[in-house]
């Protein structure tokens, strides 16, 4: 029953263990690039020796890292894939971009779990500004919300002029696919129902909540041949895969306004204030605003975002 | 179905053109899940062995807890680890959140009960009288332990495969504690999720096929080791 120990078996197991151990060693060694703030300043030195960009002389190299909580729509549009590397190059700051719903992003900022937030729900933002949880807010840009739906348009909303009748028509026929994830888009949708005096839970035929991001929700609306509220950017970037048309657009209240905030350093001493402020400043800097205005303009034939640095909420879109 | 063929074509293109980002993501996936599996092995095999061989009050409760741990959804593990490691959490000052280390921790928590539970089952499946027989044959206490562990190898390797398979294929915990940061904590599963929500179905399928191929390669090696030992 107990076989004599045959040595010949062991090299294989040892090799296997070594193969598994190798990545572990690599993980420990290679993890430093995740935490430049604690790495004794070497990343700062590394960026300082990098080839200077044209603007590098004007922007101080701050270094370190920060957590930016933002929304899935900014992430899915790909805008941050362009802006963040630019920012890191200019300032030497490593940005960890966490894409969640606006509700979660605001909450992360309020708890000090994020240093900066980039969100698009002015009504929700106001509560956090009033309570002092988010400070130094700046309007960055806007795009707009649109209502998309199946080309057949069963609710006959195409050509309707005011939002109230659009929402009423959709409520009567459905289906409507909602984000249901506490995101800025979801908040906006609930505002629209409210403005039309419709209870979204009981008053809308076949209203479904996906609890997922904009991209996933558009796909579900597409499969269901349903209506949904989306930001124009995500819709344009996914349009090639969708059988959904823009059925309502262009009203002032449909503007989707993005702002940046810094988590309150007085409430949370761990907030990386210098880095978060640098990000705020970067987002409203003239060169960045130009990049935002030009983002994917050539590809889609129309702009995805409109820069708004220095404007007030009332001035946006005028 | 077109997407699947497009995905296959895209997968082959990515692999044979040596796409740098893909290589990094694949490497990162192996590093993170390999580390977590190794740690789960280091902790889970001895613990599972001890659990199988010892008798103490409440042992059934502990075993049940381990068996429950084998089925806990990764997203729940991710949420708890996130709450621990996030800045406002008890271990926030360690600044581990949104790093590969955080992902290793979460994946370890997922894999350890699997390794432990399967190991315990494998050791318990050995004949009850085996320790006594070994003692009769003149084996000392340590030597007995060693020989028992060797006898249970088949099951232990199955335990390791189960642990590795669970962590390399999970997406919820990695997403929550790693943050899916490009070039930092994006692994194959979270990249698939990103590509899907961006509507890039072909590259999502491509990444999925690469993940499958990697899992097959690792499991092939482990199964080879297991079956050699079984002869």
Summarize this, please?
Chain A is of the alpha/beta class and 318 residues long. Chain A has helices at residues 10-30, 42-49, 72-77, 79-91, 102-111, 122-130, 163-173, 184-195, 214-224, 232-238, 273-284, 286-294, 297-300; strands at residues 65-71, 94-100, 116-119, 134-149, 176-178, 207-209, 228-231, 245-248, 255-263, 306-307. In chain B, helix 1 (2-16) packs across helix 11 (201-230), helix 4 packs across helix 5 (100-124) and helix 10 (188-197) runs antiparallel to helix 11.
Report Rg of chain A. Answer: 24 Å
Task: Return the string of H and E elements of chain A.
Answer: HHEHHEHEHEHEHEHEHEEHHHE
Domains of chain B, number: 1
Spans of chain B of 5+ residues with little confidence (pLDDT < 50)? none
* End-to-end distance of chain B: 43 Å
Count of individual beta strands of chain A:
10
What would the CATH topology of the largest domain in chain A be?
Answer: D-Maltodextrin-Binding Protein, domain 2
* Residue fraction in strands of chain B: under 5%
CATH superfamily of chain B: MetI-like
For the largest interface in this structure, which chains are involved and how many residues does each contribute? Answer: A-B, 47 and 44 residues
Provide the helix percentage of chain B.
over 70%
- So what's the CATH class of the largest domain in chain A? Alpha Beta
What would you note in describing this structure?
In chain A, the strands form 2 sheets. In chain A, strands 1, 2, 3, 4, 7, 8, 9 and 10 form an 8-stranded mixed sheet that branches. Chain A has a two-stranded parallel sheet with strand order 5-6. Chain A has helices spanning about 10-30, 40-50, 70-75, 80-90, 100-110, 120-130, 165-175, 185-195, 215-225, 230-240, 275-285, 285-295, 295-300; strands at about 65-70, 95-100, 115-120, 135-150, 175-180, 205-210, 230, 245-250, 255-265, 305. Chain A is globular. Chain A is about 40% helix and about 20% strand. By secondary structure, chain A is an alpha/beta fold. Chain A folds into 2 domains: about 60-145 and about 255-305, Periplasmic binding protein-like II (D-Maltodextrin-Binding Protein, domain 2, 3-Layer(aba) Sandwich); about 145-255, Periplasmic binding protein-like II (D-Maltodextrin-Binding Protein, domain 2, 3-Layer(aba) Sandwich), CATH 3.40.190.10. The longest helix of chain A is centred in the first third of the chain and has 21 residues, at about 10-30. Chain B is mainly α and about 230 residues long. In chain B, about 75% of the residues lie in helices and about 0% in strands. Chain B is built from 11 helices and no strands. In chain B, helix 2 (about 20-55) runs parallel beside helix 5. Chain B starts with a helix and ends with a helix. The model of chain B has no long low-confidence stretch (mean pLDDT about 90). Chains A and B meet through helix 1, strand 2 and helix 9 of A and helix 2, helix 5, helix 6 and helix 11 of B.
